[in-house]
Write a structure and sequence with these properties.
Blueprint: E1 15-24, E2 31-37, E3 48-49, E4 51-54, H1 61-73, E5 80-85, E6 89-93, E7 98-109, E8 121-127, H2 141-146
Parallel strand pairs: 1-7
Antiparallel strand pairs: 1-2, 1-4, 2-3, 2-8, 5-7, 6-7
Length: 157
């Protein structure tokens, strides 16, 4: 979650974030890129997540998604292709008393081996989508993935 790693929603307002799943299909099946969150981030340290970030004021979730991918993986817009945008996923994390709205996206990674992690991730792993539910993840990661994968409807409708 670049630029800042803190919840900034106004009192009573949910914090909007993007969650970007990068997909590669060159190892005998589909794999998604997961990032294990570093100890330097504010929330969900050590948990697996996708490429994510707070939606900045005045920025659309899609534009924020491209920005987060660039900042957290070094991949430019030309290095990924949007496959699907999922329905936003609202939820409350009672443990930290925070309301969230997750905007999930699925992108084809056109240069998956060029992805480089930044300070927000302790490590990257290309993982079968079916394995996500069995990992220790940020809240609702499997549900967010289910909203965009499989990419059967590229228009997202």
């Amino acid at each position: 979650m670049s630029n800042r790693d803190q919840a900034d929603g106004a009192a009573g307002e949910p914090t909007h974030v993007v969650t970007c799943f990068l997909l590669r299909q060159d190892h005998g099946g589909d794999l998604v890129l997961l990032a294990r969150r570093s100890d330097r981030v504010r929330t969900y340290r050590g948990a697996w997540g996708a490429i994510s970030g707070y939606v900045e004021p005045g920025v659309s979730p899609l534009e924020q998604a491209y920005q987060e991918i660039s900042e957290e993986t070094g991949l430019a817009r030309v290095d990924v292709a949007l496959l699907r945008e999922g329905e936003p996923l609202p939820f409350r994390d009672e443990a930290i008393e925070q309301d969230w709205v997750v905007h999930p996206f699925l992108f084809q990674a056109l240069r998956p081996d060029a992805a480089q992690r930044d300070w927000e991730a302790h490590e990257f792993a290309w993982t079968p989508p079916t394995a996500v539910a069995g990992l220790t993840t940020v809240p609702k990661l499997a549900e967010a993935l289910a909203r965009v994968y499989p990419p059967t409807d590229p228009a997202g409708s």
